[in-house]
Design a protein that fits this description.
The chain is 40% helix and 19% strand. It is α+β, with helices and mostly antiparallel strands.
């Protein structure tokens, strides 16, 4: 599952230009982020649906998310239920990356 952070809602996809021009990311990773950030607030999707709708393989998508994670644009979280039971995992993606020191502190 993917959960997107809150963004302005209007019919246009407004994306921070620094993301689109971040040469530390592959062109494919920038494209994936542009797609994800163009969706509505609190939009969620399963990775298998994302793969199917966009014609990308499982390993390729995992590689892109790992790249985004390494650069601070995405974080993988484990969700637990009320009794501490494993409920699932989700990716949180953000338009502006968190810095490496912030990632290490988390």
């Amino acid at each position: 599952m993917i959960v997107k952070i809150q963004r302005n809602q209007d019919p246009f996809a407004r994306i921070d230009r620094r993301l689109a021009q971040d040469t530390n990311l592959s062109f494919a990773a920038r494209g994936l982020m542009t797609y994800l950030l163009s969706m509505a607030d609190n939009w969620t999707i399963r990775l298998d649906v994302l793969r199917r709708e966009n014609g990308i393989g499982r390993d390729a998508l995992r590689t892109l998310f790992k790249e985004l994670q390494a650069k601070g644009y995405a974080e993988l979280y484990t969700e637990k239920g009320g009794s501490g039971q494993f409920k699932g995992t989700f990716w949180l993606v953000r338009e502006v990356p968190i810095s490496e020191p912030e990632r290490k502190a988390a």
